[in-house]
Amino acid sequence: xxxxxxxxxxxxxxxxxxxxxxxxxxxxxxxxxxxxxxxxxxxxxxxxxxxxxxxxxxxxxxxxxxxxxxxxxxxxxxxxxxxxxxxxxxxxxxxxxxxxxxxxxxxxxxxxxxxxxxxxxxxxxxxxxxxxxxxxxxxxxxxxxxxxxxxxxxxxxxxxxxxxxxxxxxxxxxxxxxxxxxxxxxxxxxxxxxxxxxxxxxxxxxxxxxxxxxxxxxxxxxxxxxxxxxxxxxxxxxxxxxxxxxxxxxxxxxxxxxxxxxxxxxxxxxxxxxxxxxxxxxxxxxxxxxxxxxxxxxxxxxxxxxxxxxxxxxxxxxxxxxxxxxxxxxxxxxxxxxxxxxxxxxxxxxxxxxxxxxxxxxxxxxxxxxxxxxxxxxxxxxxxxxxxxxxxxxxxxxxxxxxxxxxxxxxxxxxxxxxxxxxxxxxxxxxxxxxxxxxxxxxxxxxxxxxxxxxxxxxxxxxx
Length: 464
What we know:
The protein is an alpha/beta fold. 38% of the residues lie in helices and 9% in strands. It has helices at residues 5-14, 30-42, 55-58, 69-76, 79-91, 106-112, 144-159, 172-181, 195-199, 202-209, 227-240, 254-265, 282-287, 329-338, 367-371, 394-407, 414-421, 425-437; strands at residues 95-98, 119-124, 134-137, 164-166, 187-190, 213-217, 243-246, 270-272, 291-292, 441-444, 449-452.
């Protein structure tokens, strides 16, 4: 596999190629890279141009007390070390993606902006990285009861077509991922260390081969455990997902700090499993703004874990799916305050500037997406704030079919449908499979796409 000069420059500036030695030049941190990359963009320079011989001239106006010219020059002179390391990693199946690649996690890039990692190393199915899903996090030393619940959550997500996103660490992380892939589901593991070792581990190997798993890391693939990297990794788990579940947390450490950071930044809805462990921090996380989920796995509806807030009005509101403007101003404000389903577009307040490695990559601007209206966010009345009951989605399914007719006149990917209608990927997949079973759609493979069936040339009468 060959790498573009842009990718080579980004690698040279941002990663180690061997175990760090005392006194060796340190690669840029994500924050430093974001600062330097924005300057490059302002100067109309690409990372690839830094590999030219006139580096001092290109960086004549660059001034930063931490990112010095000497540091940049030393990092860029590590070409031989990079070539040897990449050859070794590629033999183990490790690939590299940068922010300009289509498979780079779009949710993460949208939520973190310039603080998103400039690159990820990975093994497995890159297509999973933009699937979204449920982040499941928790302690390394969780109880057998919590681990059994975690395994069941993974399996239940698999049966609902929902991807598990976790950190791959021993305990809750690993159990949730294995619960999903062992049930023929999919999973994304964001590793804080030892990616190269994980790529060859027996527990992951068959799932990597079957394309049900992807393991990624923004860190040196041979890095050992580092507490700072583990803490930094947590935000990436949340930002790749659409909702999150804390199974067990202490009152300090990675699970605790990651949950509080997610609540502060409001990336995704956060749910917490009840626990009898009085030393746990689960209740404290709920007091900070998270929600309790049901303690019984049989009562948990995993699609409810993507709903940010739940409301118990005196009378359940009836949503007008096609005429939101007919609601009063106060009703609209109330719905906006309490009702939200996570989508990749809904969490982003301000658009982030494109970094130089993204120049020339044209944003998708599908006319279908422009024409299709967004389905209104769900409001679910529930007194005890537990994810325990499936909302009535039948009217939404009819609405979905009505607009699917124009969207699927030609084969279209599930992700495009999700973005066009503003729906969560897992819900769209469930309805697409139902439409296939009903003979309304035809499923095509390699890649997976859906098209309106020739046998159903018109919209069903009940939807007109």
